[in-house]
Amino acid sequence: MIRYLLGRLGRLIAVLLFASALVFSAVYLAPGSPIGVLSGGRTLTPEQVQQLTEQYHLDDPLPVRYWAWLSGVLHGDFGQSVISRESVSTLIADRAGTTFLLVLYATVMIVVIGLSLGVFAALKGGKSDTAVVMGTGAMAAVPSFVAATVLVSLFAVRLAWFPVFGDGAGAGIVSQLWHLTLPAVALALAAMGVSARVTRTSVQQEQDNEFVHIARNRGLPSALVLRRHILRNALIPVTTAVGITVAGLIAGTVVVEQAFALNGLGTLLIQSVQAHDFAAVQAVTLILVTSFVVVNTLVDMTHPLLDPRLQRWQSA
Amino acid sequence: MTTTLTLPGPSWTRRLSHRVARLGGSMLAASGFLVFLALVALFAPLLAPHDPNETDLSAVFEGVSTSHPMGTDELGRDTASRIIWATRVSLAAPLLVIVFATLIGMAIALFTAWRGGRFDSVCTGALDIMLGFPGILLAILAVAFFGVGLAAPVIALTIAYSPYYARLTRTVAKREIAQSYVAALTQLGYGGVRASLLHIAPNILPFAIAQSAVLFAYATVDLAAISFLGLGVQPPTADWGSMVAVGQSGVLQGYPLPAICAGVMIVLTVMALNVVGEGIADRATRRTR
Q1: CA distance A228 to chain B (A)
Q2: Residue-wise pLDDT tens digits, B218-243
């Protein structure tokens, strides 16, 4: 068990080192001199050149530069934006909350709606099952920005139930959630379809088990059989699948935030790409990748906790 | 003077119709749609009723009519013609990603599975590490440093998908290599490359094609998203993703038709690819059983 956890942790660190090296070296892989890349093709005063050279340790050999950059990053120092002259960490801190709330909201939707649909389809069978399978198959094929277009057009423009744009930050949590509802649905839709399908298959498999039939034939109430005998087993693979799907949402926020003009990390990333603000591009990319990898690792780590059988096998 | 040429066995049309008849309904519809899309892309100049970039400011946001079967957009351009032309880029870009990711992924999978041992586990570990970087973020990073356009995202997604493909295919390749006929091949003096190309690769091909189809769907969505973000195809050229983005102004004014038509094309393509991928995978599994 400890060995398993340590192994996952080791892999996490390896992935983060690889990702950070990639994000770091992009500056040097890009065509043109590093100063030219970092300034985004703007003409700089000698002082600004001096400042960039110092900030990125451009006079030092590459490994030294990487180490200096990485230790800065680990201390929360992502350098300075060439556009707004603000520190990148401030830019990020102002926006991370919106992105986090969006992912969280979408996750709740996936768990509540996706899993219920899956359980419903598996238990009910027949026509309801076919309907859910077809519906979720269609849901899984809808990219977030297409969902966003339909949702805005229907619920924001036509019916005006929800605001069109903006994140409602600073107007209380209720207003913020209300603003984030359509974005969260757009972000969650495809993942809901996938989660529902995984849940359906998993519950169907557990349902056929002998112990379930025995429990039913002994006259146990079906709600109890469902909760104690079917779901406890069925939800183990579902947790892993949903966890990985949620990790995938983190990169998906970039598209959804842009579609709804939310002021989150994704919008900052796209603005920075368009404005050639590379310190910010590096920082946001690294933060999103890190969150993705950390969530994946946490999912991996909870797997043996949820399924005690795995622990026994691994220690044996 | 006429010469008649008779082919031995059933004619290829009959064989084809037999094959088509064995496909299930959804599989038939999905592959039919994909063939239809390929034809649309190929014959776009003949099929498009209008010039896709011809603006007509007197006919902005028109509804469905015989002249404009999908209406017009915010510049009075014919939406149907734009959709038809956009089919080319929307399919060609992900196709490039999939062709290269399949070739690279297959090569890695066969090579590591054949070598086995420590080399295999080290390579698998390295692939796992590379999988830690989501494809769309790699594509955005590539655009940031190499400039807008589809070239950088296509290369970035190829790099992101290859390890994924290799990881999936390696498992199947490993199972195939464990079979006794492969041991017989080595006894006959077959090297890894010859055995892989002539025997192992053809045998795992159905699984490989199924994975390519599903990854094609992913690549279609990712590249459309890149164009939606304004980082991919640049105007006046359009793909479905950029059409959804450009259509946003219409959505806000209550004319969502251009954006929704483009969106529906993406959804239908993705669904068709998923159905075909799952169908091929099911068939392959049933055959090995």
Answers
A1: 32
A2: 999 999 999 999 898 888 888 999 88
Is B155 within 8 Å of chain A by CB? no
Could you tell me if B258 and B71 are in contact, meaning their C-beta atoms sit under 8 angstroms apart?
yes
ipTM confidence score: 0.85
> Which three-class secondary structure string do you get for A159-204?
CCCCCCCCCCCCCHHHHHHHHHHHHHHHHHHHHHHHHHHHHHHHHH
A194 part of a folded domain = yes
Query: Could you give the CA distance from residue B136 to residue B152 in angstroms, rounded to a whole number?
Result: 12
Query: What's B179's domain CATH number?
Result: 1.10.3720.10
* A143 domain residue, yes or no: yes
B144 in a structural domain: yes
| Residue A316: per-residue pLDDT | 40
Residue B78's closest CA among B44, B42, B53?
B53
Biggest alpha carbon–alpha carbon distance for chain B: 76
Residue A253 has pLDDT above 90, yes or no: yes
B160-170 pLDDT per residue, tens? 999 999 988 88
Tell which B residues from 260 to 289 touch A, by Cβ distance under 8 Å: 260, 263-264, 266-267, 270-271, 274-275
| Rounded distance between C-alpha atoms, residue B109 and residue B172, angstroms | 9
- DSSP 3-state of B233: coil
This prediction's pTM: 0.85
pLDDT at position A310 over 70: no
